[in-house]
Amino acid sequence: MGNLQDHGLYQDCLYEVLACTISKKKEYPNTSSMGIRIIDDKLLKIKPYYNTMTHENIKECGTVSLNFIDDVALFAQASLKEIKGGFKGIPIEDYLYYDYNYRRKDYKIPYLKQSWMVIFCNVVNETQIMKQDNMGTINATEFELEVIYSIKKKESFKLYNRAENLALESIILATRLKIARENKDDILCSKIETRINEYLKMITQFGRNSSALKTVNLVKDYIKLL
Q: 23 and 96: one domain?
Protein backbone atom coordinates (compact mmCIF):
# COMPACT_ATOMS: atom_id res chain seq x y z
CA MET A 1 0.00 0.00 0.00
CA GLY A 2 2.64 2.54 1.00
CA ASN A 3 2.07 5.87 2.69
CA LEU A 4 1.02 9.12 1.01
CA GLN A 5 4.56 10.45 0.71
CA ASP A 6 5.57 7.25 -1.10
CA HIS A 7 3.01 8.25 -3.74
CA GLY A 8 4.45 11.76 -4.12
CA LEU A 9 1.90 13.51 -1.87
CA TYR A 10 3.31 15.82 0.76
CA GLN A 11 2.18 17.19 4.10
CA ASP A 12 0.09 20.39 4.07
CA CYS A 13 -0.09 20.39 0.26
CA LEU A 14 -3.34 20.73 -1.70
CA TYR A 15 -4.35 18.42 -4.56
CA GLU A 16 -7.42 18.32 -6.81
CA VAL A 17 -9.04 14.91 -7.24
CA LEU A 18 -12.33 13.29 -8.18
CA ALA A 19 -14.12 11.97 -5.08
CA CYS A 20 -16.31 8.89 -5.62
CA THR A 21 -19.01 7.97 -3.09
CA ILE A 22 -22.12 5.85 -2.98
CA SER A 23 -25.31 5.79 -0.93
CA LYS A 24 -26.76 2.72 0.75
CA LYS A 25 -30.12 3.63 -0.78
CA LYS A 26 -28.93 4.47 -4.29
CA GLU A 27 -26.67 2.04 -6.12
CA TYR A 28 -25.41 4.53 -8.72
CA PRO A 29 -22.09 6.11 -7.63
CA ASN A 30 -21.54 9.84 -7.40
CA THR A 31 -18.35 11.61 -8.48
CA SER A 32 -17.38 15.25 -7.97
CA SER A 33 -14.31 17.46 -8.03
CA MET A 34 -12.75 17.83 -4.60
CA GLY A 35 -9.71 19.55 -3.11
CA ILE A 36 -7.77 17.51 -0.56
CA ARG A 37 -5.17 18.62 2.00
CA ILE A 38 -2.56 16.16 3.28
CA ILE A 39 -2.17 16.09 7.09
CA ASP A 40 0.43 13.33 7.42
CA ASP A 41 1.31 9.96 5.87
CA LYS A 42 -2.07 8.41 6.71
CA LEU A 43 -4.51 11.31 7.16
CA LEU A 44 -6.02 13.98 4.91
CA LYS A 45 -8.94 16.40 4.87
CA ILE A 46 -11.73 17.28 2.45
CA LYS A 47 -14.48 19.94 2.66
CA PRO A 48 -17.60 19.10 0.64
CA TYR A 49 -20.42 21.66 0.63
CA TYR A 50 -23.71 21.02 2.40
CA ASN A 51 -26.60 19.71 0.30
CA THR A 52 -24.31 17.97 -2.17
CA MET A 53 -24.44 14.26 -2.93
CA THR A 54 -20.79 13.87 -1.89
CA HIS A 55 -21.55 15.36 1.53
CA GLU A 56 -24.67 13.22 2.01
CA ASN A 57 -22.99 9.98 0.91
CA ILE A 58 -19.96 10.47 3.16
CA LYS A 59 -22.22 11.28 6.11
CA GLU A 60 -24.23 8.14 5.43
CA CYS A 61 -21.51 5.59 4.61
CA GLY A 62 -18.30 7.16 5.91
CA THR A 63 -16.19 6.03 2.95
CA VAL A 64 -14.81 7.69 -0.20
CA SER A 65 -12.31 7.04 -2.97
CA LEU A 66 -10.01 9.87 -4.11
CA ASN A 67 -9.15 9.51 -7.79
CA PHE A 68 -6.18 11.20 -9.46
CA ILE A 69 -6.98 12.00 -13.09
CA ASP A 70 -4.90 13.30 -16.00
CA ASP A 71 -7.73 14.67 -18.18
CA VAL A 72 -9.22 17.97 -16.94
CA ALA A 73 -12.34 17.46 -19.09
CA LEU A 74 -13.24 14.47 -16.93
CA PHE A 75 -13.45 16.84 -13.95
CA ALA A 76 -16.14 18.77 -15.84
CA GLN A 77 -18.01 15.61 -16.80
CA ALA A 78 -18.02 14.45 -13.16
CA SER A 79 -18.81 17.75 -11.44
CA LEU A 80 -21.29 19.45 -13.79
CA LYS A 81 -24.32 17.20 -13.51
CA GLU A 82 -27.77 16.79 -11.99
CA ILE A 83 -29.30 19.30 -14.37
CA LYS A 84 -32.63 18.42 -15.96
CA GLY A 85 -32.19 17.70 -19.65
CA GLY A 86 -28.47 16.89 -19.57
CA PHE A 87 -25.21 16.36 -17.69
CA LYS A 88 -25.62 12.83 -16.37
CA GLY A 89 -22.11 12.55 -14.95
CA ILE A 90 -19.79 9.55 -15.26
CA PRO A 91 -21.28 6.47 -17.03
CA ILE A 92 -21.80 3.44 -14.79
CA GLU A 93 -19.46 1.33 -16.96
CA ASP A 94 -16.54 3.61 -16.04
CA TYR A 95 -16.66 2.51 -12.38
CA LEU A 96 -14.91 -0.31 -10.55
CA TYR A 97 -15.41 -1.27 -6.89
CA TYR A 98 -13.14 -1.93 -3.92
CA ASP A 99 -14.53 -4.37 -1.34
CA TYR A 100 -13.90 -3.18 2.20
CA ASN A 101 -14.87 -4.74 5.55
CA TYR A 102 -14.91 -2.42 8.56
CA ARG A 103 -16.27 -3.28 12.01
CA ARG A 104 -17.99 -6.35 10.57
CA LYS A 105 -19.72 -4.32 7.87
CA ASP A 106 -19.09 -4.81 4.15
CA TYR A 107 -18.65 -1.79 1.87
CA LYS A 108 -18.23 -1.42 -1.88
CA ILE A 109 -16.33 1.79 -2.57
CA PRO A 110 -16.60 2.98 -6.20
CA TYR A 111 -13.58 4.29 -8.10
CA LEU A 112 -12.79 5.29 -11.68
CA LYS A 113 -11.17 3.18 -14.37
CA GLN A 114 -9.49 6.30 -15.78
CA SER A 115 -7.62 7.16 -12.57
CA TRP A 116 -3.86 6.69 -12.43
CA MET A 117 -3.93 6.53 -8.62
CA VAL A 118 -6.74 5.91 -6.11
CA ILE A 119 -6.77 6.41 -2.34
CA PHE A 120 -9.57 4.72 -0.38
CA CYS A 121 -10.51 6.35 2.93
CA ASN A 122 -12.93 6.27 5.82
CA VAL A 123 -14.01 9.14 8.06
CA VAL A 124 -12.41 9.44 11.49
CA ASN A 125 -13.59 12.95 12.42
CA GLU A 126 -15.75 15.80 11.14
CA THR A 127 -16.09 19.52 11.88
CA GLN A 128 -18.66 22.06 10.69
CA ILE A 129 -17.01 25.10 9.10
CA MET A 130 -17.71 28.21 7.04
CA LYS A 131 -15.46 28.79 4.02
CA GLN A 132 -15.05 32.41 2.98
CA ASP A 133 -13.29 33.94 0.00
CA ASN A 134 -13.85 36.79 -2.45
CA MET A 135 -16.72 34.81 -4.01
CA GLY A 136 -18.71 34.64 -0.78
CA THR A 137 -19.31 32.36 2.20
CA ILE A 138 -20.14 28.66 1.95
CA ASN A 139 -21.16 26.22 4.69
CA ALA A 140 -19.27 22.93 4.57
CA THR A 141 -18.18 19.95 6.63
CA GLU A 142 -14.48 19.27 7.03
CA PHE A 143 -13.98 15.51 7.07
CA GLU A 144 -10.76 14.05 8.40
CA LEU A 145 -10.04 10.86 6.47
CA GLU A 146 -7.85 7.88 7.23
CA VAL A 147 -6.23 5.99 4.36
CA ILE A 148 -7.36 2.35 4.31
CA TYR A 149 -5.86 1.31 0.97
CA SER A 150 -4.31 2.83 -2.14
CA ILE A 151 -3.66 1.79 -5.71
CA LYS A 152 -1.10 3.39 -8.01
CA LYS A 153 -1.91 2.04 -11.46
CA LYS A 154 0.77 3.94 -13.34
CA GLU A 155 3.28 6.74 -12.96
CA SER A 156 1.97 10.16 -13.87
CA PHE A 157 3.97 13.34 -14.02
CA LYS A 158 1.08 15.38 -15.35
CA LEU A 159 1.44 19.10 -14.64
CA TYR A 160 -1.61 21.10 -15.63
CA ASN A 161 -0.79 24.12 -17.77
CA ARG A 162 -2.38 27.52 -17.21
CA ALA A 163 -5.38 26.80 -19.47
CA GLU A 164 -6.13 23.55 -17.63
CA ASN A 165 -5.76 25.19 -14.21
CA LEU A 166 -8.25 27.87 -15.22
CA ALA A 167 -10.54 25.16 -16.56
CA LEU A 168 -10.52 23.50 -13.13
CA GLU A 169 -11.31 26.81 -11.45
CA SER A 170 -14.18 27.38 -13.92
CA ILE A 171 -15.67 23.98 -13.02
CA ILE A 172 -15.54 24.77 -9.31
CA LEU A 173 -17.11 28.20 -9.86
CA ALA A 174 -19.88 26.67 -12.00
CA THR A 175 -20.87 24.35 -9.14
CA ARG A 176 -20.89 27.34 -6.79
CA LEU A 177 -23.05 29.26 -9.26
CA LYS A 178 -25.63 26.49 -9.05
CA ILE A 179 -25.75 26.84 -5.26
CA ALA A 180 -25.91 30.65 -5.46
CA ARG A 181 -28.85 30.51 -7.90
CA GLU A 182 -30.67 27.99 -5.72
CA ASN A 183 -30.21 30.41 -2.79
CA LYS A 184 -31.36 33.33 -4.99
CA ASP A 185 -28.19 35.27 -4.15
CA ASP A 186 -28.12 37.64 -7.13
CA ILE A 187 -25.01 39.54 -6.02
CA LEU A 188 -22.95 36.39 -5.62
CA CYS A 189 -24.31 35.01 -8.91
CA SER A 190 -23.13 38.12 -10.72
CA LYS A 191 -19.65 37.92 -9.19
CA ILE A 192 -19.28 34.24 -10.06
CA GLU A 193 -20.57 34.68 -13.62
CA THR A 194 -18.13 37.54 -14.22
CA ARG A 195 -15.20 35.47 -12.97
CA ILE A 196 -16.22 32.42 -15.05
CA ASN A 197 -16.49 34.53 -18.20
CA GLU A 198 -13.04 35.99 -17.56
CA TYR A 199 -11.54 32.52 -17.15
CA LEU A 200 -13.25 31.07 -20.22
CA LYS A 201 -12.06 33.97 -22.36
CA MET A 202 -8.48 33.50 -21.14
CA ILE A 203 -8.59 29.73 -21.82
CA THR A 204 -9.57 30.26 -25.44
CA GLN A 205 -6.73 32.76 -25.84
CA PHE A 206 -4.08 30.30 -24.61
CA GLY A 207 -4.25 28.09 -27.68
CA ARG A 208 -5.55 24.75 -28.87
CA ASN A 209 -5.59 22.74 -25.68
CA SER A 210 -8.31 20.24 -26.57
CA SER A 211 -9.09 19.13 -23.01
CA ALA A 212 -9.37 22.71 -21.71
CA LEU A 213 -11.46 23.80 -24.70
CA LYS A 214 -13.79 20.82 -24.24
CA THR A 215 -14.19 21.94 -20.62
CA VAL A 216 -15.07 25.47 -21.80
CA ASN A 217 -17.95 24.09 -23.88
CA LEU A 218 -19.17 21.87 -21.02
CA VAL A 219 -19.16 24.78 -18.57
CA LYS A 220 -21.03 27.03 -21.03
CA ASP A 221 -23.68 24.37 -21.70
CA TYR A 222 -24.05 23.65 -17.99
CA ILE A 223 -24.64 27.33 -17.13
CA LYS A 224 -27.31 27.61 -19.83
CA LEU A 225 -29.27 24.84 -18.11
CA LEU A 226 -29.07 26.30 -14.59
A: yes
